[in-house]
Structure formats: C-alpha cells, structure tokens
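[09:14] KT: can someone run the structure on this one? pasting the chain below
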Amino acid sequence: MGIIQFGLIFAVYVTINNSVREAARWGSIYVYDNTLSATANDTARNDGMVDRMYFSRGILNIPVRGTAGSNFNTATTGPYPTGSCANQTVTAPAVAAWYYGANATNPDVTVCYAQLASVPTSDPRRGYYLDVETWYHLQVFIPLLQQFLPDDPVKGAPWIRLPGRITVVIN
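[09:31] RB: done, structure tokens below
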C-alpha cells in the first residue's frame, strides 16, 4: 500500500510540474495586444496560464477557471502572499504578482513578474522573469504514512500539498 501511495504522490508531482511548465511556456510567448491596456493584457496572460494548467492536468482533479467551486475564478493582485515569488533568481523585487485561490496566505496559483535592472520597463514585459507556482492538494489514504508527510496548510491532515514551480523569461 505504501508503494501505491508514493506512486500516486510521484505521479501527481510529475503531472503538476508538467502542467506549470506548459502554463509558463504559454505565458512566455503570449502575444501582447496593443488594443488592450497593460492590465488587461496581464489579466489575459494570467488567465490563459491558469487555463493551460487545466488543459494539461491529465488525471488530476483541477477545476476549470470560471466554474462553481473553482479556486481559479478570479485573480487578486498583491500584497504578495506568504512565500510567493520566493524562488525569484533576480535581486530586483517583483514588480507585479497575482494569486488565484480561496486563501491569500496559501494560494493555489501564484504568478509573479520581476524586472532585471538591465531590462527597460515595458508594458509587454519583454525580458522580465515570469515566475509561476502552483499547488495540488492530494489526500493520503494510508494513516501510517501521514505522520511522515507534511499536512496541507489549507485542508489539514490527511492531505498533503504538492508544488509545481518554474521561472521563465518573457519573449
């Protein structure tokens, strides 16, 4: 039973990381629409990334954005939730951050943009670092293993929270 449980954990980890990579790839090649404002373009890019996470979810139970009960209905801008943008590899602070989720302290998806000092400021955010982080809630069905695994800060025991993270450069 333990092998099956760890197999499920590994499968979810691989799938959620593939999902976040697909979302970040789509966000990095997003075509800026000059007829929209910078905020509207950011919203379209962010919503598109969350939709790509849904489409590449495989067997995971991730609800589509805009459905009842989904944590991805609306994005909220900073202040940054605890731990967001933590894997930024730049010294400059994040210039914008959005999170999707019912809980601002532990959101299910965080999208951050960071601007290097050598990159000029621009609405399309070309050259900015795009940091995408998502979490998946998985229920542990073997009580013996639960004592060795961290509890999900949102759902508590017997759930664990598995991360997917990536940082890319916007083209």
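[09:33] KT: thanks! The two ends are 46 Å apart (CA to CA).
[09:34] RB: yep, looked fine to me
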